[in-house]
Specification:
Neuraminidase, Immunoglobulin-like, globular
Amino acid sequence: MKSTRLKWAVLATTLLFAAGAPAQSEIEVFVNSRGTNAIKKYDEHGNYLGDFISPGSGGLIAPEDIVFHPDGTMLVTGAGNTAIKRYDGQTGAYMGNFSSGYVLQTPSKMSIGWDSMLYVTQWGTTQNKVVRFGLDGHFVDEFTETPTPNGLGHVWDSDKNFYISVYGNGGNGTVQKFDSAGHSLGTFINTSILQGPTDIWFDNNGDMLVEDWTVGRVLRYSSNGQYVGVFVNGLSNPEGIAFLPNGNLLIGDWGEDAVHLIDSTGQVLGYFTSGNGLMDPNNVAVRVTEPVSPAKEERAVKDLAVSPNPASNVIFLKIDAGDFLAELFDETGNLVLSEKNSTALNVSHLPSGIYTLKTTKTPSGEAGVKRVAIVH
């Protein structure tokens, strides 16, 4: 582990819906400024809107990742903190520690998994397994049976297998694979080409994209872990990935103190933002507040959870029902997907956009509606 600069990636995009909101969607972008212990806010065009979380608020030290809790609050890890911190999702005001029951050691990357638990990686010298917390903040367990030293970005496939990038020393990094219970399935991507992996994600072809901090590229690997080629070139130290609703990518860059704007083909379009005190950006998060009419307003279903949201390839459902129908509608109201009793919906063939997910339990007929985003 490097003593002065920790390198890891973050992926955080969230989707909120507010009845009675303005007719046009509001797109907000949040970027970690690790070097100033702050979270900065921008509009969708990269215009700077100020510090959303002020430097050192709540004792935040070296922010690493942002996740929006389903209740709308912002969860933040800091490399110098031993607990996940919680902030008001609208004002950025500090609300206290979120996690409890486990003292984290250099926490980094977070995400909410298919099981509605919060997964957190650690860069500690003695604690370096992936840890799970409930959405109430209480410690659940150490998920991975084996350590993932310097573990960073992580994703799931449609079989609920868990993949995590392991940065190593920046020259021997790998991507490791675990089953849904945390048992090791071995190395998915070896270090023959990969050096310093940070964030990872799947595209709509099932390929895995890997940011390599050491060589300044995003690399493409097949669904079985074989090297395919370079997806994005010409970066310095990429870390952090988020998607705009139009399919463009935002990638943080430590070496340039900037966020790159990249199209869906991997072409670098220039800086999304730089300057204004941004230092060591290691996380990018996009929040879309989508206006809905009363007819589309979400009906609360306490026993239904959807992840990830936004999704790229698969939407996982967690629902308390033996028999149910899941239907996905596009913005024009057309039914684009219908599955019975399936908790893994393949959406890789659908275009990027905002969709309405309706679940209907049988035989009770109890229905729930959630809005989800698909980005490729």
